[in-house]
Amino acid sequence: MTNQPPKKDENKQVQQAEREAEKKARKQQKELEKQKKTAAKERLKQQQAAEKAEKKANKKPFKETLKAQLPFLTPVLEYQFNKREKMMLYILGMFLLVMAALFLVFFPAVTKLQSTLDERTTVLEQQSDMKLAISSLKSNQTLLNAAQSNLASKQASYSDVLNNAQLDTLVTTLVGSQGLNPQTLSIDSVTQGAVPSFGTKTDSTSGSSSSSSSSSSSSSSGSSDISSGSTSTSNGDSSTSTGTTSDKQSALSYATVTVTYTGGHSALMSLLDTANAHPEIQVMGFTDDIKNNKGTVTLNVYMANKAAQ
User: Fold this and answer.
1) What ranges make up the beta strands (E) of 122-272?
2) Which pLDDT score, from 0 to 100, does residue 291 have?
3) Rg (CA), the chain
4) What DSSP character marks residue 190?
5) What local confidence, expressed as pLDDT, does residue 200 receive?
6) Residue 169 contacts residue 187 (beta carbons within 8 Å)
7) pLDDT (0 to 100) of residue 5
8) DSSP character at residue 308
9) Distance CA 260, CA 181 (A)
10) Which residue from 201, 307, 206 is spatially nearest to 253, judged by alpha carbons?
11) What's the CA angle centered on 48, arms 44 and 54, to 5 degrees?
């Protein structure tokens, strides 16, 4: 008996050969399709190139077209620049290019840089001021508290703002307590602001009131005029002058009161001494007619604006 190869191996070889043949056929088909696509692209490119060449051949040059449309430019278009003119045009172009760079790039950049530096300097100054203010906050608060305490202690020596009736009572009581008889009393309106020194001239046109005592006729005046820092006392041919000064203080109001009185010279001197010793009252001027035992006294009554503190 002879040995025969198994049929399974033969079948496998046949199937493998068929698969290889199929792969080769597919590969050849793909290559053919690829060649067809390449050939089509080449034909399309050649067609487009031919169309462009045809258009270019049919199209007139721009220079010729310009000559046909604008005949007066023909000499300019046909002009041939020599070497020197070309060099001058080159230099001019470079100059224009440099100037454009300067005005469009360099100068704006320098201006912006300077502006930025100025802003930086301003911000640094503000920052320094803020740091200084922050560092001095505690000391300023301490000074403020001390100033408020000092103001409160000084205002304690003064009355609150008085009305006309209260001013009338205060001055009348003061004058009467020194042995003088007040006849008329004129009160100007309460003034706020700078406190006048002795001898200054103050004018007011409203708010005046008048009162009388001891059954005398009353009079009113819309102004109080203190024109001199000295006052005279007449006694024959003799005259004397006297005056007081007052420091200007803030947060005060004052009213100018003029009193007409009857009484002796000694009582007037006592009134002046008492008024000068009083923190609320300043003598602004007086007249004393010793012969007729009468005269006038002008006083400033100071009041503290405690409500504004």
Assistant:
1) 159-160, 181-187, 191-192, 209-212, 233-234, 252-262
2) 87
3) 57
4) P
5) 52
6) no
7) 54
8) G
9) 9
10) 307
11) 145
What was the pLDDT predicted at 233?
Answer: 34
Any idea of the CA torsion for 181, 195, 145, 154, to the nearest 10 degrees?
-20
Angle formed by the axes of helices 107-135 and 137-155, nearest 10°? 50
- Predicted pLDDT at 280: 78
Q: Positive or negative, the Cα torsion across 97, 103, 108, 113?
A: positive
Query: Is the Cβ–Cβ distance between 189 and 204 less than 8 Å?
Result: yes
Produce one character per residue of 44-67: b if its CB has 16 or more CB atoms within 10 Å, e if not. Answer: eeeeeeeeeeeeeeeeeeeeeeeb
Residues near 231 by beta carbon (within 8 Å), at least 6 away in sequence = 241, 242, 243, 285, 286, 287, 288
Please give the single-letter amino acid code of residue 176.
G
289 has which bridge partners?
234, 294
Amino acid at 21: A
| Coil, strand or helix at 255 | strand
Q: How many residues does the chain have?
A: 309
SS3 177: helix
Instruction: Report CA 300 to chain centroid distance, whole Å.
Output: 41
Give the tokens for residue 273: 């001494």
Strand-pair partners of 192: 253
Name, in order, each residue with C-beta under 8 angstroms of 301's C-beta and a sequence gap of 6 or more. 162, 167, 170, 171, 254, 255, 257, 280, 281
Q: Give the number of other CB atoms < 10 A from CB of residue 268.
A: 24
Q: Which regions in the chain score pLDDT beneath 50?
A: 1, 199, 201-249
The residues, ordered by sequence, that sit 6+ positions from 202 with a Cβ below 8 Å of its Cβ are 188, 191, 196, 224, 225, 226, 256
